[in-house]
Structures are given as C-alpha cells and as structure tokens.
Design brief:
Length: 416
C-alpha cells in the first residue's frame, strides 16, 4: 500500500476505539517498536480533558507507519482491540463514497477484525468498522477500500454470500444525503395510510368500507390485542398514491363514532426517525442563530462565584437573559455562560470584563488549550504576583463543542 498515493499525511496514523484510560505514553510504548515516532496525541474534550477515544501517531518515516498499520491493527490495549488506519482529515475525501461499501445482516460475532479479514483478500483496506452500541454489534458495517475497483469487486463477489451462516448484503455506501433523498422521493409517492383513534368495534371489513371509496386497496388491517379487540389503529395499503393522498386529505380529522380520527402517511421507523431528526436539527440551528453573538463563555471563575454573582458582575453591560455557572457535585467547574439580549451588549462585556480581577483566591495559572490557540482569541493569564482570578472569555454560541471522530467517514444514522 502506498499512503502518499492518496495524499494521506505522509506518516500519520489514526488509532481509534481506544479505552478511555489509554495515554500518550502507552501508545508511544506500543508503537515505537515499528520505528522512530515524532509525536503521539490522544484527542480530548477541551473542557473536561477526557479522552475522545481516538489518537494520532506520527512516525518519522512512512514505511514505519505502514509497518505499524500492517502488524498492529486490532491489537488489544487495556482490554480493547484498537482500529488503525491512515490519517485522512479531509472530510470531502472521507465522505466522497469512493471505495466505500456497506455491509448489513452481519452476525453478532463479526467484529472489526473479522470483517477486515473477510474483505482484505479483495483489495487494500484503508478502514474497516462494524457499527456497535452498548449491546455490541448493530449488524452492519463499512469497509473503505483504497480503490473503487476493489470496492466493486467486493460487491460483486460478496453480496449474497453466507458469513457465519447469515446471508449478507454488500452494496455501495450511500451518504446520508443520498439516503434522505431516496426516502424523500419514496415518501412523496406513498401508498400506505395509517389510521388511529377509532373505537374497539372497528374491524377489517368496516375499515375497508370506510376507505374503499377512495380507490382499490391491496390490504386493510385493524391491529388487535390477544383477545381480538381493536387496539384503535390500523393500516390501508392502496394500489395508487393518488388514492392514498385523497384518503388522507378527506378523512384526516373527521369524526367517527364521536372520536376525531387521525389519517396520515404510514411511515417506517427509519422514516419517522429521519423526520424527527430533521426537525431537531432545524430547531438546533434556529437556537444557534438566535444566540449567535450574544452568549459569552466565561472561563477561570473562582470557586466562590455562583449564578447570582456571575449575573451581578455582568449586569452593568445590558439585559441578561441567563447566567449559569457549570457545577459538578455541588462545586463550580470554573466556567459558565452569560447570555445577553443583543450582540452589542455582549461585545461591550467582552471589552470591559476580559481579564478583570473578580476574586483574590490564589489559583493555578490556566493552560491555553485548543479553544484559544495562541494569538487567535482574547485571553489574559492570572496575575503572576498575587495569583488573583481573572476572567477568560470567548464570544460564542452556547453549544458544547463536539469533536468529530476522524475515523467516522461513514454516517451510519438511519440506515435500514
């Protein structure tokens, strides 16, 4: 395999699926037999400093990095097999779909290594992952080949094959946008109708009589309990979309035996999840837009500063809609948020308050972390003589920083 052929960092490896307690020193000790190492970095949350479960190991020579990749992949560190691949931080390349395949209906026993061993004979693999949750494998995974030709060969050879006595599906990986577009197109042409909020006396024949006037139905079903009583909802599957749409338009909200019934498009679980997710993302974006430029992140707070004191210190600069010191176990974590009613007020607060001494308890000098790379953000160190606490602020939206796992070139949400 030639890493430079794909513009990967010359000798940089991504190491994922790390145990939370794995440190840089452990990784250095593990990988140094492969060759001289320039640096090791475990990625951590910028506030809590907890491991995010992945790291980067940078070798001096590409040949040493390749040796580590070939000989150490899936080795166990602190009880967990680690997943190694070439570091590729360009999201457009990671998510392009070129060389990526999707495998589903996997047996629970198939892990990352088993999937890698199964598909490695078909071409060089850049990354390989079985999707998991707290209960283990979710039954599907991804393989990213070095070339599109290898991916197509894998689809041709492996689709429909038995793997641990289960017939697996192997196909081209589709991005979330593609999946949503396909589901959206199918949703517009729906033929299945969901009806709810009718009484226990409803049966299949009665439901068919009610909806048969809109067009030919392939099936009609009232859902019942173990005693045969209606559970108050059912489904009608029409031959044509136009008839299903007409039934929804005319019957939704109508009264039936004194009850207002609901009639709408019948959605699969994945379609409902995607619709809810779209609504949630829109609400999240609206919230970010609403708070953009008015919310301050305040760092380096004294332990004695609570919500009320924080609000009081900033109230001179405008109308405060919220002030919150983040606590854990009843003690301040040393940072909080102040939200103003306008960007002008927030900007004025930053200008006036950044670096101001508000308490005199001696504290350690704070490290400038990734949130404020040197020269890119306003920060003031602690007073060297008295050790007094000063504010360290950032004008930002009140959204917790989210670190994307660089290995996750695959968006596996909402996959059927």
């Amino acid at each position: 395999m030639n890493p430079s052929a794909h513009s990967y960092p010359m000798a940089s490896l991504y190491v994922g699926d790390l145990h939370p307690d794995v440190t840089e020193a452990m990784l250095y000790e593990k990988f140094s037999p492969a060759g001289p190492i320039l640096s090791v970095r475990v990625c951590r949350d910028m506030i809590t400093r907890r491991s995010l479960g992945y790291a980067y190991v940078n070798f001096q020579q590409p040949v040493d990095a390749e040796r580590a990749l070939d000989t150490m992949n899936f080795h166990v560190i602190k009880g967990k097999p680690v997943r190694i691949m070439w570091s590729q931080r360009d999201p457009s390349l990671r998510k392009s779909g070129v060389g990526n395949i999707f495998i589903k209906n996997l047996d629970k026993s198939i892990d990352n290594k088993a999937l890698y061993d199964t598909f490695s004979a078909l071409g060089n693999i850049l990354s390989c992952k079985v999707a998991c949750d707290e209960n283990g494998s979710k039954g599907y995974g991804f393989v990213h080949f070095e070339t599109q030709e290898a991916a197509e060969k894998a689809i041709e050879k492996m689709n429909g094959m038995l793997l641990n006595d289960r017939k697996v599906f192997v196909g081209r990986f589709k991005s979330r946008k593609e999946r949503e577009a396909e589901l959206g197109a199918r949703a517009k042409e729906f033929t299945n109708v969901y009806i709810k909020n009718f009484g226990e006396d409803m049966d299949d024949e009665h439901l068919k009589d009610l909806f048969g006037k809109f067009g030919p139905a392939l099936s009609v079903k009232v859902m019942t309990d173990e005693s045969g009583k209606s559970k108050g909802f059912g489904f009608v599957s029409f031959e044509r979309h136009e008839d299903a749409q007409k039934a929804v338009d005319e019957m939704n909200g109508k009264e039936l035996n004194g009850k207002q019934i609901y009639v709408g498009q019948a959605q699969k679980k994945v379609e409902r999840q995607m619709e809810l997710k779209r609504k949630f993302e829109q609400m999240k974006q609206d919230r970010i837009t609403r708070y953009q430029g008015v919310n301050l992140y305040v760092k380096n707070l004294d332990d004695g500063i609570d919500d009320e004191r924080l609000r009081k210190e900033f109230s001179l600069f405008g109308t405060i809609t919220s002030a919150k010191v983040i606590m854990e176990g009843g003690r301040s974590k040393g940072f909080g948020f102040v939200c103003f009613s306008s960007p002008e007020e927030a900007t004025k607060a930053v200008t006036e308050m950044n670096g101001r001494i508000v308490a005199t308890n001696p504290l350690l000098k704070p490290a400038v972390d990734e949130m404020f790379p040197e020269g890119t953000g306003p920060y003031v160190d602690l007073d060297e003589a008295g050790g007094s606490t000063r504010f360290l602020m950032d004008l930002t939206a009140n959204e917790k920083a989210v670190h994307a796992d660089f290995c996750n070139e695959f968006d596996d949400d909402d996959i059927e």
